[in-house]
Amino acid sequence: MPVGDYCRRNVGTIKGTATLAEAGTRMKDESTGCLVVLDLTDKPCGLVTDRDLALRTLCGRLDAKTATVDSIVVREDPISVSEEAMVRLAVGMMRRLGVRRLLVRDAAKNLVGIVLWDDLIGLLATELSGLAATIGAQSPHASVPRSRALTEVLEQ
Question: Helix or strand or coil: residue 13?
Answer without folding.
Answer: strand
